[in-house]
C-alpha cells in the first residue's frame, strides 16, 4: 500500500481479496452474490439528505468507493470517479444481479422507503461486518444533517479521520500461514427442500422479529449460543421436512447447515473487506432418528471443536494455495471465469441444505440509539437453496430473514411456529404483503 511520511494514502486500485475472487466468475444475467443490510429509523427518510450523507461518507470508505475492472488474469477494483450511487426508492425484490456498468458503476445500491435505508452489497466488496460499518456511518451522517448531535464511535467511523491500511487490507494474505490441510471438507449432495420456483429476480422474503433476551433464554436452556440454537432449529426443520417427503422411498440425503464465521473474532484486524469463512454442520438421517436435543448438541460440539485459530488458519491457507496455483494464476481471465461459473453451476450450494449468517449485535453511539428502531440483514436468494437466512441484533430486537426462491413458505412458517411454541414471541413481516 502506498505510504507517505507515515500517513496512509488510499490506492487508486485494489486486488480482490481471497474470498472475493470467485464472485465475478459466478455472475450471470439472473444471479449475483448479493446481500442487503437495512436500518429502520424512527423518522421518515429524506432522500435528498440521504444523498448528501452518502456523498460525504464515501471518501472515508475507499474500498467501497470503487468499480469492477477486468485485467488479463484477474478482476480488480479501481477507484470510481463518479460521486456516489443514485439514491433509489426501494423495490419489492431486492438483491437482484449486479451489472457493473449500471448504478454509476458502484457495487452497492442505496434504497429508501418510509423510515428505512437499505443497501444491497455485492459480496466482492465486503462481508456483513464491513457493510454494517458503512451503513451505520451513513445513517449517523444523515442524522447529523437532520440536526442531531451524533459522535463517532462503536460501529460509526469518524469522517474526519483518514482510512487506515488495516481497513483496506486483505487479511487472508496477512494471517494465512498454516502448512496443514483442513480436515472438514465434505462434498456430498445434501437435501434441498422443494417448491414451486418463482420467476428470475423474484424472491420470497420473510422476516421474524423477536426479543433477544427471550431467544437467549431458550438457547441457555440447551447450554448453547443463539447462533448454535438457531442453526440447530433450522437443521431440525429441514431434517423433518425430508422425513415427511421421503416416506420410506430410497436413501435419505444428509441435511446440512452452513454457518459463516467472522474471522475478526480470532485474528486482530478491523478490515472492512471480506474476512469470513463458512463451517458446515451435517447429520445423516440414515443413522437413525434424531431428536432436537441431539441436533443441538451435535451443532454445538462441532462448532466449538472447529472454531479455533488453527483450524481457521488451515482453511485460509488452503484457499490461498488454490489462488496461487501456477495453473490458475496464469490462466487468462475469460477461461478462469468460465471454469468458476461452470463449477458453481454444477456444485454451488450442493452440500448445503440451509445457510444462516448471523452478524451479531450492531452497536452505535448511545446518542444515536434513540433514532434507530432496528437493523435487518438479508442474504440474496440462492440458485438451488430455498432457505437462505440472515440475522442481526440491535438492542433487544433479533431480526431473522428468510430469502426463498420458492412460492411456498412452509419452511419459514414451521421455523417461526416452533419458536412461538417455545415461548418466543415473533412478529412477521413479508414482501408478499404490501410494503409497510
Q: Which features characterize this protein?
A:
436 residues; 12 helices; disordered N terminus; 7-stranded mixed β-sheet; alpha+beta
How does this model look, in words?
By secondary structure, the protein is of the alpha+beta class. Helix content is 31%, strand content 23%. It has twelve helices and 17 strands. The strands form four sheets. It has a seven-stranded mixed β-sheet. It has a five-stranded mixed β-sheet with strand order 7-8-9-4-14, with helices on one face. It has a three-stranded antiparallel β-sheet with strand order 3-6-5, with no helix packed on it. Strand 15 and strand 16 form a beta hairpin. Helix 7 packs across helix 8 and helix 7 packs across helix 12. The N terminus is likely disordered.
The unreliable regions are 1-6
Separation of the first and last Cα atoms: 45 Å
Globally, the shape reads globular
Helix content: 25-40%
Biggest β-sheet description: 7 strands, mixed
Query: How much is the radius of gyration in Å?
Result: 21 Å
- Backbone structural class: alpha+beta
Order of helices and strands: EEEHEHEEEEEHHHEHHEEHHHHEEEEHE
Care to count the β-strands?
A: 17
Number of helices: 12
In the sheet with the most strands, the strands line up as: 12-11-13-15-16-10-17
What amount of the residues lies in strands? 15-25%
Overall pLDDT score? 89
Amino acid at each position: 500500500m502506498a505510504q507517505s511520511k507515515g500517513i496512509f494514502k488510499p490506492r487508486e486500485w485494489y486486488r480482490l481479496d481471497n474470498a472475493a475472487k470467485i464472485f465475478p466468475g459466478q455472475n450471470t444475467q439472473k444471479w449475483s452474490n448479493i446481500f442487503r443490510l437495512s436500518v429502520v429509523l424512527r423518522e421518515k427518510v429524506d432522500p435528498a439528505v440521504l444523498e448528501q450523507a452518502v456523498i460525504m461518507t464515501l471518501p472515508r470508505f475507499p474500498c467501497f468507493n470503487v468499480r469492477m475492472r477486468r485485467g488479463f488474469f484477474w478482476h480488480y477494483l479501481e477507484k470510481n470517479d463518479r460521486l456516489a450511487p443514485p439514491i433509489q426508492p426501494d423495490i419489492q425484490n431486492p438483491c437482484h444481479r449486479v451489472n457493473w456498468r449500471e448504478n454509476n458503476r458502484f457495487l452497492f445500491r442505496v434504497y429508501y422507503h418510509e423510515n428505512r435505508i437499505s443497501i444491497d452489497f455485492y459480496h466482492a466488496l465486503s462481508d456483513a461486518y464491513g457493510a454494517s460499518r458503512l451503513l451505520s456511518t451513513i445513517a449517523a451522517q444523515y442524522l447529523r444533517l437532520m440536526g442531531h448531535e451524533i459522535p463517532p464511535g462503536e460501529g460509526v467511523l469518524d469522517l474526519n479521520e483518514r482510512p487506515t491500511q488495516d481497513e483496506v487490507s486483505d487479511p487472508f494474505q496477512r494471517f494465512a500461514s498454516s502448512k496443514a490441510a483442513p480436515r472438514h471438507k465434505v462434498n456430498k449432495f445434501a437435501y434441498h427442500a422443494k417448491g414451486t420456483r418463482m420467476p428470475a429476480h423474484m424472491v420470497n422474503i420473510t422476516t421474524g422479529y423477536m426479543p433477544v433476551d427471550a431467544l437467549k433464554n431458550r438457547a441457555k436452556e440447551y447450554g448453547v449460543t443463539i447462533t448454535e440454537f438457531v442453526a440447530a432449529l433450522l437443521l431440525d426443520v429441514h431434517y423433518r421436512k425430508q422425513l415427511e417427503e421421503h416416506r420410506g422411498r430410497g436413501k435419505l440425503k444428509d441435511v446440512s447447515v452452513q454457518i459463516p464465521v467472522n474471522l475478526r473474532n480470532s485474528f486482530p484486524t478491523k478490515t472492512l473487506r471480506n474476512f469470513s469463512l463458512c463451517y458446515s454442520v451435517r447429520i445423516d438421517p440414515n443413522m437413525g432418528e434424531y431428536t432436537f436435543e441431539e441436533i443441538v448438541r451435535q451443532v454445538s460440539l462441532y462448532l466449538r471443536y472447529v472454531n479455533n485459530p488453527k483450524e481457521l488458519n488451515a482453511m485460509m491457507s488452503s484457499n490461498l494455495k488454490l489462488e496461487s496455483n501456477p495453473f490458475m494464476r496464469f490462466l487468462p481471465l475469460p477461461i478462469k471465469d468460465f471454469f468458476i461459473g461452470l463449477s458453481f453451476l454444477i456444485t454451488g450450494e450442493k452440500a448445503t441444505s440451509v445457510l444462516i449468517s448471523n452478524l451479531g449485535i450492531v452497536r452505535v453511539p448511545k446518542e444515536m440509539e434513540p433514532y434507530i428502531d432496528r437493523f435487518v440483514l438479508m442474504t440474496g436468494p440462492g440458485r438451488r437453496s430455498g432457505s437462505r437466512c440472515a440475522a442481526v441484533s440491535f438492542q433487544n430486537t433479533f431480526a431473522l430473514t428468510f430469502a426463498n426462491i420458492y412460492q411456498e413458505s412452509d419452511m419459514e412458517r414451521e421455523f417461526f411456529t416452533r419458536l412461538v411454541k417455545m415461548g418466543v414471541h415473533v412478529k412477521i413481516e413479508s414482501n408478499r404483503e404490501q410494503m409497510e
